[in-house]
Amino acid sequence: MFTIDAHLDLSMNAMEWNRDLRDSVATINAREQGLTDKPDRGNATVSLPELRKGNIGLVVATQIARYVAPDNLLPGWHSPEQAWAQTQAQISWYKTMEEDGQMVQVNDLPSLEKHIALWENNTPSANNPIGYILSLEGADSIVTIDHLQRAYNYGLRAVGPAHYGPGRYAQGTDATGYMGSKGHELLKEMERLNIILDATHLCDDSFWEALDNFNGHVWASHNNCRALVNHNRQFSDEQIKELINRGAVMGCAMDAWMMVPGWVRGKSNPKEMNCNLEVLIDHLDHICQIAGNSLHIGIGSDMDGAFGTEQCPYDLVTIADEKKIPGLLKRRGYTDGDIKNIMHGNWLRFLRKAWA
């Protein structure tokens, strides 16, 4: 089934992990044997050929570069200007993949419909380009508000104002506090440009402030449920209800620590923790039960978002195994229509409305 994955850090993997995503996952992992500079070396799950094998023809692909103040111990860049330059290297990689025929940017309704038609009319999909919608994960690299227009001009269509910790425009995972005047200015400009607000990673304070001050389209590209894994990275039921009221779609993530309670990074094992794709369905189903329908949920795997097979469902070897999800949904009693909604239909409906 044609699938949309709403969160993949492709350019980060290419430019910081030094992975040639045109290679097979097996080739990438073989080349990384013996490397220890990253926690997931040799455990990659994502490549462009594997996306095609899984019929994952459209993705939300990120730029990401965090600014860190002198007292911030998180990894990141020491100035917003450096962070901006890093995102420019990342957009350059996407453009280079376009030139090579591997990818194509989807940034408006005509390009969306053209790309969907291509994948519908050309199967098998071994030679189809992967469509990508450009998103910015954490807005620290937006040096000035004028830079947002520049980013829009090269295709940016969604922004998550925060990532981990304190940010320049909002507070993220494991932080607390509000957006303030700079954050409000960012939201206003996003609304003017019709850029989608990605509520993912916003701390609770900034989440509610953002939704109170933004009148545009909102989604959550990769989030799971706090009721199942109690951590501020997850959405509470109250937040999920508010996103449903705003017409949002939420993508369920496949990072094991977000899927099962008690996960200890670097120590826990997916099989020992019983972390499999059935657990993903638990999170997805929880949102559907709150909504009373299947209209607000999708896939936002975050695969290879600085983790690999050591920290993902044990029955997922590569991202192509997302094709197992429809069968699992079917066994849970989801109808064919529900399954299409979850695998691609909800994201398409959202984008068609946002870009109408």
Structure overview:
By secondary structure, this protein is an alpha/beta fold. It has a single domain, classed as Metal-dependent hydrolases (TIM Barrel, Alpha-Beta Barrel), CATH 3.20.20. It has 13 helices and nine strands. The strands form two sheets. Strands 1, 2, 3, 4, 5, 6 and 7 form a seven-stranded parallel beta sheet that branches. Helix 12 (about 325-330) packs across helix 13. The protein is globular, with a radius of gyration of 19 Å. The mean pLDDT is about 95.
| Helix and strand element order | EHHHEHEHEHEHEHEHEHHEHH
Assign the structural class, choosing from mainly alpha, mainly beta, alpha/beta, alpha+beta, or little secondary structure. alpha/beta
Helix content: 25-40%
Which stretches are low in confidence, meaning pLDDT under 50 for 5 or more residues running?
none
Instruction: Figure out the total of helices.
Output: 13
Beta fraction:
5-15%
Q: Count the domains.
A: 1
CATH topology: TIM Barrel
Largest sheet report? 7 strands, parallel
In short:
The protein has 356 residues and is α/β, with parallel strands linked by helices.
List the SSEs and their pairings.
Blueprint: E1 3-8, H1 10-15, H2 25-31, H3 48-53, E2 56-63, H4 80-99, E3 103-105, H5 109-121, E4 130-137, H6 145-153, E5 156-160, H7 180-193, E6 196-198, H8 204-213, E7 218-219, H9 237-245, E8 250-252, H10 256-259, H11 277-291, E9 297-299, H12 325-331, H13 336-354
Parallel strand pairs: 1-2, 2-4, 3-4, 4-5, 5-6, 6-7, 8-9
Helix pairs in contact: 6-7, 12-13
